[in-house]
Amino acid sequence: MVTPTAPRVQSLARSGIQAIPKEYVRPKEELMSIGNIFEEEEKDEGPQVPTIDLKEIDSEDRVEREKCREELKKAAMDWGVMHLVNHGISDDLTERVKRAGQAFFDQPVEEKEKYANEQASGKIQGYGSKLANNASGQLEWEDYFFHLIYPEDKRDMSIWPETPSDYTEATSEYARQLRSLATKILSVLSLGLGLEEGRLEKEVGGLEELLLQMKINYYPKCPQPELALGVEAHTDVSALTFILHNMVPGLQLFYKDKWVTAKCVPNSIILHIGDTIEILSNGEYKSILHRGLVNKEKVRISWAVFCEPPKDKIILKPLPETVSEQKPAMFPPRTFQQHIEHKLFRRTQDALLSDEE
User: Fold this and answer.
1) Contacting residues for 344 by C-beta, under 8 A, at least 6 apart
2) Is residue 215 annotated as a catalytic residue, yes or no?
């Protein structure tokens, strides 16, 4: 096991520190936009993340079905993020998933360390904290647990927590149901572009190759939340990302040049459109910039499942049907792995304050 260069944030938070280490303090220009997340969530003025009711997504009634699908498509084009309600996954199952994830993080740190990842050697699955991978050496106020949860034959069960005992069963069932939901969403997005229903799913790897990777993000209470971020501003590289959370606010979206705080909608799953779908749709669907704030009073936990195409098998580029003389291709052809590397390179360049990409 490789010892991390930074202590686990959970241990740091529990140590009773009054000031956070300098590596966690955001740059001056960023600090201006970090407010109190509870106050931000209570604001009702200005744009709000859309809530999409999926109850009629497969309705026999054509009018109801089309209305539901049109709303989803509109939210994907305008925002690229939405709260899904009546999504077909029972509250009982999502609560089991959340209880199991929280129970893992409630264990003593030495128990969790048995599952530690080794980022330096490329072993990315397991328990970890962000290591500074950019020129500014910045850290985020979170620990996480990351592992592949679907397809089942590609899982590494040796990394799945043995405690709590319900972790594997609850997470596996959630993965299966989420995979079906991903198919429904991709179908609606395909039809929204005037494509055949199964086209986007096929383009991102289909049933055999689309990978579902779960990342449980644990954001401890922070003594100086106005100086830190749980996760820095980024867009998701995935095709789709589905997020559960423990009803503590933190997610902010950069919409129309302003940070908008997502409300906590009961029994919902947050859906993000990722870069992969933005690229395939030639920018018709948006992958929105977002970040996570932290707070002094409550631990925040989120369960993000990234639906990702295979790293090297597929060339990601705008589909021919989305390209025209009026709208040329906005993205160059790249594999998924090349896209990830390109983003990392750009982030490093930005951190070095370079003007070149």
Assistant:
1) 133
2) yes
What are the DSSP calls for 244-304, one per residue?
EE-S---EEEEETTEEEEPP--TT-EEEEE-HHHHHHTTTSS----EEE---SS--EEEEE
Q: Which of 215, 221, 298, 342 is catalytic?
A: 215
pLDDT at 52 over 70: yes
290 is catalytic: yes
56-74 burial code (b ≥16 CB/10 A, e <16)? bbeeeeeeeeeebbebbbe
What pLDDT is recorded for position 1?
Answer: 41
Q: Which helix (H) or strand (E) holds 164?
A: none
Identify the band that residue 302 occupies on the pLDDT scale cut at 50, 70 and 90: very high
- Catalytic-role residue among 87, 147, 290, 317: 290
- In this structure, what DSSP letter does residue 225 have? T
236 given a catalytic annotation: yes
Mean pLDDT computed over 195-214: 97
Structure confidence by residue, pLDDT tens digits, 142-156? 999 999 999 999 999
The residue annotated as part of the active site, out of 123, 221, 234, 343, is: 234
Examine the pLDDT at 232 and tell me if it is beyond 60.
yes
Structure tokens at 136: 């500014």
| Predicted confidence (pLDDT) per residue in 247-301, tens digit | 999 999 999 999 999 999 999 999 999 999 999 999 999 999 999 999 999 999 9
Identify the active-site residue in 73, 83, 112, 236.
Answer: 236
Measured distance CA(344)–CA(357) in Å, rounded: 11
> What DSSP state is assigned to residue 57?
T
